Model the fold of this input.
Amino acid sequence: MRPILILIAAFMLTASAQGYSLLPDQLSSSAQIDRALKYIKAIEPETLDEQARICEIAAPPFKERESALYFRRRFEELGLKNVRIDGAGNAIGERPGASDGPVVVLAAHLDTVFPEGTPVKVMRDEAMLKGPGIGDNCRGLAVMLAIIRALNETGITTSGTIIFVADVGEEGLGDLRGVRHLFNEELKGKIDYFIAIDGAGLEITNRAVGSHRYRVTFRGPGGHSFGAFGMPNPIHALGRAIEKVSRFKAPDRPKTTFNVGRIEGGTSVNSIAHTVWMEVDMRSESAVELNKLDAQFKEAVRAALDEENRFWESPHKLTVDVELIGDRPTGEQATDAPIVKAALEADAQLGIKSRLTSGSTDSNIPISLGIPAITIDGGGRGRGAHSLAESFDSTDSHLGAQRALLVTLNVSNLKL
Done:
């Protein structure tokens, strides 16, 4: 590991070239930072215990309350100020800065993709932890607490205030509601930089993948499969729509995707359904490509409805409702932006090979608002994310926590 002063000097030179700089008091804390990095490595077994403990608190979509209460208590125990749960359900705690540095939000999302009732017991086998959500995002949450502990242990002060947030609604149909609330209400106009810790690995996400999500519902009168035969069938119409979607062509670059994720409806095997619906997810790194795909999708739904209604000589007609249930904006944080440089310099300090990537994360919201933001992984290696077989390999996982600390310190000491 290079001496911390080399990191800071290199970062100041890079920053100066970009028109910004670290505040001078950062220089006096180099020994403390070095101790903090060693402390984070030393407490990694405890951080892993915390990671497992967090994961055994169920946090299904829209039901993150129990987990938020746990984080409110932990924030209070760790001495954060103005600890609270806001109107959206986010747990928030503040670590005031020493001067007029920037306000930095360090966030990790509470929710998992798994429905209520999913077994959440974490199994451990040496370096491997297994359980739903163990990487995404129990790791990010545990790293956030480790950072607070390291700052407390070493007495590091930052020029800027750091606001720690365990937020709700990042996954699925949560539609980033926790972070939307932060920027639109709770901390509106107060956030200078935003860093999210999400999942396993050591990547830096600076490009926001946008998404449009729809629930499409076909409706008709329904009836007996034999006695009422000859009327349009909502399930047949849905099948026509899915077949059309399955033949879409999406560009590899910018990466653009589509998926029919859920379908439901019908009454019985011998009934013509009266209602059926599907949920569709479309994503792209490009707003232009996403909008093209969106238009193509809506045309496919209209065509499917028309074809099913025309096919049967019946006075009964189907209707369709296309409801937008998720809308995540696209955007990009430039590679030469100060917040990205801060992450790259942290990687250089720790000998991590930097990899900038794209993703759909809490950072989508601030990036779309023009507020500097990135998402960083929490270290280790994850497999099977969003599956019941999700696992986390903790080999050298302390690097993720060390990197998150350095990024946070670099950003919280930037001169506005």
The domain at 210-328 is CATH 3.30.70.360 (Alpha-Beta Plaits).
